[in-house]
Design brief:
Length: 345
């Protein structure tokens, strides 16, 4: 009898315990973390090895400046983690190519871990340049982003001699070109044009293979149209086609060939517009060979025949870009509502 009573007593006490636990749960404070308010987001496309301590790719110098002590934040759908510092500067490696990079950017922008409502973007990486307009080691801010791929193409032998072998495809007018905020480009140049840039003996020697005055210049900071294409095009014919497309779309001179910026910008535009987007590229190769080599020789150079200056260029990109990032963060009260007017000259 005592055994039955004992069981009933224990069962009878259970509801009180459950009620007490539920009450304690209902009054427990919420521990949901507030999203990081991102002031500047730096997007790189690849890193060669680790984020620090080895040969630097596009991300390492940024990482060492802003995120060496940061905890990586994993975002489902993004290629690599996002890093943030206490000042609201965040960054990540998005991946190479239009699909790879834009899908990472989309995942990061829609993550509840971040607040991008007032963010400025620096799309950063290495690139190529035509020898008539740029040089190895230069750093360039985009005025326009143009998609190289959205159109019709055919073989040159199937065309009249000297005529373009490209026709834009209708329906892509809002996707194929982006004019970046001229005020923001103006600020970028004002803050960074006089940045002392790194150079190397190997880059200097390589430039001398080209007769063009622009190709022989020392590294500098400039502006122009960045051409985004998944095709890694080479040769004077393809370079001329890129310039033709830039002019066809009403953009500035084509000066940089890269693989991601227009696609990433489209993702940002659909949610936040493009007024706060910057594209920053450093030239590590020419988009064509010198007069003494064929396009195939340039595309697949013999050992020791590649352009020098890669290590210096990825450092130059961060040296130039960080001037703008640091200024925006330091003067955040003036920048958070939008790009302030440029000071009168």
């Amino acid at each position: 009898m005592s055994s039955v009573w004992s069981r009933r007593a224990r069962w009878g006490a259970l509801p009180a315990v459950v009620v007490l636990a539920a009450a304690c749960t209902s009054v427990a404070p919420s521990r949901v973390a507030e999203p990081v308010k991102v002031k500047v987001f730096v997007a790189a496309m690849f890193e060669i090895g680790q984020n620090t301590g080895d040969r630097a790719g596009e991300f390492q110098h940024w990482y060492e400046r802003y995120w060496k002590n940061a905890v990586p934040v994993t975002v489902p759908g993004a290629l690599q983690p996002v890093y943030c510092n206490p000042d609201g500067v965040c960054g990540a490696v998005l991946g190479m190519g239009k699909v790879n990079s834009s899908s990472s950017m989309q995942a990061i922008l829609t993550s509840p871990k971040f607040d991008f409502s007032k963010t400025y973007y620096v799309i950063s990486g290495v690139a190529g340049t035509p020898p008539s307009r740029g040089t190895i080691g230069e750093v360039n801010w985009a005025t326009w982003l143009v998609d190289y791929d959205l159109g019709h193409r055919w073989a040159p032998e199937e065309n009249k001699a000297g005529e373009p072998t490209f026709m834009p495809r209708k329906g892509y007018e809002e996707y194929r070109r982006f004019k970046l905020n001229p005020e923001l480009v103006g600020w970028a140049m004002k803050l960074s044009a006089d940045t002392p840039l790194k150079d190397s003996d190997s880059a200097r020697a390589y430039r001398l293979r080209y007769p063009q005055a622009a190709a022989r210049r020392a590294p500098f900071v400039g502006t122009g149209t960045h051409m985004t294409g998944d095709t890694f095009f080479h040769g004077p014919g393809m370079s001329n086609q890129a310039q033709y497309i830039a002019k066809l779309y009403g953009a500035d001179d084509y000066v940089i060939t890269e693989m991601e910026a227009a696609a990433i910008t489209l993702v940002i535009k659909r949610q936040y517009g493009t007024d706060r987007v910057m594209s920053l590229r450093g030239a590590v190769n020419f988009d064509q060979g010198n007069p003494r080599e064929t396009t195939l020789q340039h595309l697949d150079p013999a050992p020791g025949e590649t352009a020098g200056g890669f290590a210096e260029t990825v450092q130059n990109i961060e040296l130039v870009g960080s001037r703008v990032v640091d200024h925006i963060v330091a003067d955040w009260p003036q920048w958070q509502a939008g790009v302030p007017p440029l000071p009168a000259r």
